[in-house]
Amino acid sequence: MTRRELRENTFIMLFHKEFYETDEMKEQCELYLEKKAPMSKKDEKYVCDKVFDIISKLSELDADIDEASETWTVSRMSKIDLTIMRLAYYEMVYEESVPVQVAINEAVEIAKLYGGDNSPSFINGVLGKLAKNGKCL
Asked: How does pLDDT run across 17-62, given as a tens digit for each residue?
């Protein structure tokens, strides 16, 4: 799979967190992978490991996203937009192999596919502000 396909699958799986408790996510990951187009075991492990690592850092990620968004709290944001930002911000902070601008651009592309009309610009603005705040690699 391409990095974009892996990222999109990670986004979809991470979005499940909005509907299931953390202790149910392992089963949800297994069910998703059963129904999804076949992935290599390596890709399956990558997606699931990344989802669970992001989930373990949600409070930190959400606090920074909440602060950067100023007029929107994470509790009021579209769950799709929030999930996209969580994934991108995680990549910006924790994945040295992903340049900050690539993480932002990929988030905007996912937002064009799954978000609302204003999602790409909103996500770009929040992630851009997070990038300027200096926590990113």
From this structure: 999 888 888 898 888 888 876 889 999 999 999 999 999 999 999 9
Among candidate residues 129, 90, 87, the one with its CA nearest the CA of residue 110: 87
Measured between alpha carbons, how far is 52 from 6 in angstroms, rounded to an integer?
Answer: 15
Is 101 a member of any domain?
A: yes
In a domain, 137, yes or no: no
Question: CB neighbours of 72 closer than 8 A, spacing ≥ 6?
Answer: 122
As given in the structure block, the two tokens for residue 75 are 């509790």
Please state, in angstroms and rounded to a whole number, the distance separating the CA atoms of residues 100 and 58: 19
Q: In sequence order, what DSSP letters do the residues of 1-51 get, joined into one string?
A: --HHHHHHHHHHHHHGGGTS-GGGHHHHHHHHHHHSSP--HHHHHHHHHHH
Q: Is residue 28 part of a domain?
A: yes
- The encoded tokens of residue 72 equal 């929107």
Q: What confidence tens digit (pLDDT) does each residue in 80-121 have?
A: 999 999 999 999 999 999 999 999 999 999 999 999 999 999
